[in-house]
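Example 3.2
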Amino acid sequence: MARSDRQARMPAPITWHADRDEPDNHAAAAAIAAAASLVAMWPYTSVIAPGSWSFAVLSVIVVTAIAGFGTRLLLRYRSRWARELVTLGVQVAATTGALTQLVAGDTAILGVVPTPTTVLAFQTLSASAWEEIAFGTAPLEATPGLRAVLGLGFAVVAILIDQLVATRGAVLAAILTAVIGSVPMIVTLGEANVVWFVLLGGVLLLLFRFTARRHPEAPRRSSAALASGVGIAAMLAAVVVAPALPVSASLTGTGVGVTVDASLRLGDDLRQPNPVEVLTVATAEDTAPYLRLTTLSQFDGRVWRPDRGELQEQSEGFGPDEWGADIATSEESTSIRVVRMSSSWLPVPYPATGIQGVTATWRLSPENRTVVSRSADAVGSDYTVASLEVTPTLEQIRAIEVAAPLADPDADPVELPAVIASTAAEVTAQAETDYDRLIALQSWFRNGFRYSLDTPVEEGFDGTGAEAVARFLEARSGYCVHFAGAFALMAESLGMQVRIVVGYLPGTITEERRGDDNVFSVSSDQLHSWPEVLFPGVGWVPFEPTASLGVPTAFAASTATGGPGGAPVTPVPTSTPGAEQTTGPEIDRGDDTGDAGAGAPLRRLDPAPVLLATLGTLFVLALPAVIRILVRARRRGRARRGDAGAAWTELRATMLDLELPVSDADSPRSRGALLVTEGRADADAMRALTDAVERANYARTGGDAGDLTAALDGVLRELRRSVDRPTRLRALLLPRSLFAGRGADAPLLA
């Protein structure tokens, strides 16, 4: 009985292997979860401009990792589920406080405790972010709304991944990481980012290996082989399969495709530094037509709303003719292939009269002769459109009064700045007909304004609201959206029915041929908008007010003679903005010089996304080293207080990092003697450590070992000197002790 009592009073023996629930396991879990969250976040840098949102997301990821590690460390002797439940609560509280401080700290108690005002602020910002996502184009501007939504969303993602890693839910954590990270590439038809796939493969390797080694019933070597196989397969798939995907892969970039919505927020898309081909056009004509997606005719003072009229089956056609029998027309056929453009509208020439090659899910809108679907996407479509070129003579168009604006009794009246109407009246004062007034407006814009993608951003009026138009008329510099919006409001102030078209310029002719047809390539930076005015008996007539772009609309006067035998010659006017002059905007960059090619936009490359991605990668790569340094410092602190177990655990961890053989079968004395014999450790320092371990294991009270840091540092220093420099570097950057399981002689990633 006395022997049992003495055994009960003796401290638990210090074993050669690390305890399964010791701090480095918690540190590894936190590091892997944080790395997975960062990998999930990275693709969003390609679709959202750099800004405070990335700092908010990074902050909540770091706070989640620190809160999880600290809580589990303090509660490591509690039951697993009780510990994780408390950890979850701490993480929620910590991320809530951090996000509150970053987004709406002035509305919270002490800057971190939310109040009803804080909740209201988040609701307002979320609504704003939703509108930006629904009506914007990539890359979106980094607004406070997106900062709030992304910070909140990634707080949830980071907590979920952290909890799944801690509870061995490797499969679910891997799926969540992959799904969240792939969303930007899916919704924008972006290029397959090989670098992201490789990083994802590395994270999957760590996830499966870490959770497999912690499963008490899992065979360690088979689990390691399985985890390594999964990670290697993921990385090989990234390198081999990604380049064969329908969109091209890039080893250095995170390029995006084009998603076109029904708004006039085209500035962000036009400012993308790397235009991509979005569609091709084949036609027998020497020039390709403008292609329209949709029209916008409802203006509420802030934005133009898309027209949403009745839709009908393709068999019913596009509706009755809008032009009279006395108006000259000619038939045209255009074949269009959508390569990389996501939209619920199909680009078609105007006025379209028939379409072939699309499924029944695409419906026709007779109101504006567009093609729309509520379920299909334009990408991948290949179809042919029959259309007409409507060419009234100059006398005919001048003799027609433009239709008056339609009044909506249910709409609130829109009060426009006085400068819009007064300028329109001043510019058109000398014109006698409606057509001449519109030509005067068109010439005034083209001759007195400058095309620029930067001026609206620098001057703070990027948009089509009434105030933005007034500011544009003052600055006299902007891009197609501003020209079209200003022209439309000025024409409406003159009593004319007008609308704005969103579509594409004709593109650039290529050397490719399809039979007898010329093939034109249309790129993402040729997304365009222009105004149309309704002439009864002719239809909607387009105008091109955008300076330096296309050919301005003009109609030729008729001639009485000139044909064979004195027959009248049919005039060949230009009723649709053409492409003979330019196929893309000529952008004035002030002092910029050099020949960038005819009509090619000069663009400034934004290094911020690359810098952010680089810093994020460096953070992920450095995270294991930082955690290892913190764990080593904590163990040295305990060794200074005489904790032999902490000193011996750090010795074993260092051996794992340096790829030295480690086995649970060896006792501390035998392992220490072997290290001394091999010349890897000082005999006196090693004896001090082994004596302290044996006293802790076998002495009645454990004994007072005193400060062990000198002996520990001496042994560790000799261990590092015994290996080559590459091994020491790997031990620093990828410390295997954070991920290795119990005992295995072979290194984790061997």
